[in-house]
Fold:
Amino acid sequence: MFGDRHQFLLLFLDSIGLGPVSAANPLSQSVHTPFLSQLLGTALVESMMIEASGLLAKPIDARSGIPGLLQSATGQTMLCKGTKAAAFRGCHQSGFANGSLR
Structure:
């Protein structure tokens, strides 16, 4: 149907942090995420790293090395532009990506 065009699925889980395997972490238990666990072959945990033909799954550091509370403007800029906006600004910026982030 699509010929030679590449297809991809980006799954972005906003405000979901990946933690260690533990009874207190529901994402580390495949019963809570059956579809994703089956697709990836593993639970959603901080140590997850899958690089196979046609599949790349790994956690990212949403803070990009900048301490502080994550904010939407720099986070959205990082996702859409691929640049570490919080590092560029020196802090996390809330609200909309305006001014220097554009």
Notes: The radius of gyration is 16 Å.
